[in-house]
Structure formats: C-alpha cells, structure tokens
Specification:
Blueprint (H helix, E strand, L loop, with lengths): L4 H7 L10 H7 L3 H17 L5 E5 L6 H18 L2 E6 L6 H9 L4 E3 L12 E4 L18 E4 L11 E4 L6 H12 L5 H14 L9 H10 L5 H8 L5 H12 L1 E4 L2 E8 L4 H10 L7 E8 L2 E8 L6 H9 L3 E5 L3 E7 L5 H18 L9 E2 L14
Parallel strand pairs: 1-2, 1-4, 2-3, 4-5, 5-6, 8-9
Antiparallel strand pairs: 7-8, 7-13, 9-10, 10-12, 11-12
Bound molecules: manganese (II) ion (MN).
The site of manganese (II) ion has 7 residues, from helix 4.
Length: 386
Amino acid sequence: MTAREPFARMWGKGLNSRTIDWSMVTEASESARAAGGRAARLAGLLEAARGVKSLNICAHSNPDPDSLASSAALKFLLEQLAGIKCRIVYDGVIGRAENQAMVKHLRLPIRPLRPIRHVRRPMNVALVDTQPRSGNNPYPRSYKPRIVIDHHPLLKSTEAAWVDVRPGYGATATILFEYLEASGLTPPARLATALAYGVSSETRDLGREASPEDVRAYLGLFPLVQKKILAQIEHPRLPRSYFTAIDRALHRAFSYRNVIGSKLGNVDSPDIVSEVADFLMAHERMTWCITIGCFQDQIYISLRSTNLKARAGRLIKKLLGKQGTAGGHGQMAGGQVDVSGMTPADVKLLEERILQRFLHILGHNESAEFRPLIVRPDPEFSPDFV
Ligand SMILES: [Mn+2]
C-alpha cells in the first residue's frame, strides 16, 4: 500500500487531490499495519456502542477546542455509522474568545450540563479528552462510562466498554481523525475545521508535544478547512473584560530566576488562567510558568514549561497532592483546589503556599522569593490602580 491510498480512500470524490501537498504527507504516513490497527479500533468502538440508542458525549470541564472538536467528531461518527442519537454536553464555562468564536462560527451542537442528575442513563456516556475520576469532568465518579477516548496519561481507574487512550498524541482530535479515516466518511467542512483547530490550538501550531500523527491529521484535514472561518476563530474580536484581565495579570506578574507567573485573584472564567499562562510563557528568559486564579470557590492553577522533558503533569500532581485534582502532559498541566468555606484571607494564604511549594519542587531554596515582573511601572499610573 502506498502512503497516498488511505487519504484517497478517506476523502473519496469530494476532494481535489491537487490541493494536498503529498510530499509533506508521505513523511508522516504510517504502514499498512497501522492502517489495519485503525480499522480494528473503529470496529471496537462500534462494538462498544452496539445496541445504544442515545449517547451523551461529555467533553471535559470548561471545554477547550480539542475537547469540543473531538466530541463533535464522535457524534458525527456514531450518528452516521450506527444511527445513535448523540448529545454533546459540558459543564463550566467556555471563556476564551477563540473558543467562543469556534462554537459560534462552526455552529457546534453543544449544550451546557448543569445538574448531573440530568444524565438519565449513566452507562451511555462517552468521555472525550478526559477520563473517569480525573476531576476534570462532571460525570459521577461511581459510574462507568461506555466509551473513553483521550490523550492524557491513562489513569489506573479508567474502565469502560471501549477505552482508547493515547498519551503519545498531541491532541484527542487526532485520534478522532484516525477513526474518521478508517470509516471512509468525509467530514463536513465545519467538522474538519473544528478538528484542525483542535489539533493546532492544543499543540500551539504543532509546536508543543505534537506527534507525527498530529501533523498528519492536520495536513489531511487542511484541504477541507474553511480558511476564512478558521482565521476568524484564531483572531477573534475581544471583549473589554479581556483587556482588563490582561492588565491585572501583568500588574500581578512575578518572576524568580527562570520561573514566571501571576496571581489573578477572582476571574470571570477559568480559561483566563491558562490563557495568561500561555501569554507569560512567551517571556524569552523563562522556562516555567505558573498562574493561579479563583472562580466559584475553586482555585485554578496552570503550569507551562518550555522544557520538552518537563513532566508538568506529574509536577502539578505533586504540587497539589491530595488537596486538589490535577492532570496534564509534559509541557502543560492544570489543576484545581476546592476552597468553598474558606475565607478570602485563607485562600490567599493557600495560593502563597502553593507558589512557595512550586519553587521548592523546582529545587529553589526556602528563601526564594518572587519579585514583580514589571519593576518600575509607569509613574503616571498610581499603584492603587490594581
Ligand atoms: Mn486535549
């Protein structure tokens, strides 16, 4: 089998083959054995869904583009191949302007899930881009989902009729791309656009933890992508609250040697905590970034590293211990701590302790202290401004 065959089969007549630069695809393509593996996986997924009439597809909390695109792709697959009525649900807030633009422009069929009792058939749930008991989805810990598809490290407790967890992949959207490929179905343009954006945003334009499979998925999808819509998603119009949040984040930014971060205080949505982490990590001299913000009685913590061997996911678990839930990958991770019932002063103290502990884990001594990133603010601004 040549490298081109799976692609030709996949997109069928719908695609003008001149739009693909095959020389780029060949490099990342895989053997016929791998293609067989994909077909077997698709068969396994369909087997697990056999007899199911309707399914709740559950994205992770405060869903990101990877989670949303992957959920939409699973819905498409199961509806087309098995006639299963799928509903995509999520909890939390879609805060980031890019993600809101994605939902709007691509008309993603998603619904907020408020009280979890609305899941009537606990068995018929698919968790996408998350796993049971990860603390990152609203699904009750005691129920076993039917399907789990994810690219975070496999948790020991993860059990389902179908588990497909591939930690080597940069995005869950890439896993869904491979199911689509095996199915021979051509994704509609909006779905292809969602998946491509899921891959590119999760891997920071294929630069962060992207595997050859992620590159291959992106290239395979790209000819189908609605380019103008993609640009509108990647460069969204921003609300005033965004600028306020960035202003606060900069005023409160700190650093110590190669570590940068910011304490954001109360935030409008948890997304801003990771967004600021990405923003500050751009600092040319920094290797680590930690941001903390509080939203609805939860402290959210984001970690980033420029170091390929950082093991950020492991580090944040160590950092929070039994205090909270945490997870992530090598260069990016996140966690949260329930602070309901705590006074604002206690929350502040806890944040302080987490930051100190973070420096300690990184090997800095006890007396290490963060200093303001912006040392001399513009004298025209009063320091009381914050
Ligand atoms: Mn993901």
